[in-house]
Design a protein that fits this description.
This protein has one domain (20-150): 2,3-Dihydroxybiphenyl 1,2-Dioxygenase, domain 1, CATH 3.10.180. Helices cover 24% and strands 35% of the residues. The chain is built from 4 helices and 8 strands, in the order αβαβββαβαβββ. The protein has helices spanning 7-12, 34-45, 83-91, 105-114; strands at 23-31, 48-55, 60-67, 70-77, 94-101, 125-126, 132-136, 145-150. Strands 2-3-4-1-5-8-7-6 form an 8-stranded mixed sheet. A hairpin with an 8-residue loop joins strand 7 and strand 8 (145-150). The structure holds cobalt (II) ion. Cobalt (II) ion binds next to strand 1 and strand 5.
């Protein structure tokens, strides 16, 4: 397991460290109709719903869909004035964000901030399905809204 974790790098303190992702945790997809999207991903790609939730304060109805070892997060809007609603109005259904799983989210955010990334969330917050999350502005990742996720045990 050599080389993993940030302790050696922190001790050195000489250079900016990149985030060390474990994997892509999920891809977020904005959809017009959640039931229809779930059915599509089940039928065409063998997806299996692992979680589904309506989160009023985030303005989304969402489903987490497993595809083998991987995962999609299907996101439908609860209104035009929500983040996903605005995305759909501007760009239509499609790829919304990429989520990277990290072991230490606060440390990863410090590293991103030190490296000049524009953070939408400066600190971890409650995301969907019990995850702790923070978003990074698409301008810092070549147009891709990026999310850091930790399952937090
Ligand atoms: Co996500």
């Amino acid at each position: 397991m050599g080389g993993h974790g940030g302790s050696a790098a922190m001790a050195a303190g000489t250079s900016i460290e990149a985030v060390e992702p474990l994997r892509i945790h999920h891809l977020g997809v904005a959809v017009d109709d959640l039931d229809e999207a779930v059915e599509t991903y089940e039928r065409l790609f063998g997806g299996a719903v692992e979680h589904r939730a309506t989160v009023e304060d985030q303005g989304v109805e969402a489903a987490s869909v497993r595809l083998g070892e991987s995962r999609l997060e299907l996101l439908a809007s609860l209104g035009d004035d929500t983040p996903v609603g605005k995305f759909l109005a501007k760009r239509g259904p499609g790829m919304h964000h990429v989520a990277y799983e990290v072991t230490d989210l606060p440390e990863a955010l410090r590293e991103l901030a030190d490296d000049g990334a524009e953070l939408i969330d400066a600190a971890p917050r409650d995301g969907l399905f019990g995850l702790q999350v923070a978003f990074v502005h698409p301008d810092s990742a070549h147009g891709v809204l990026s999310e850091l996720v930790t399952d937090g045990g």
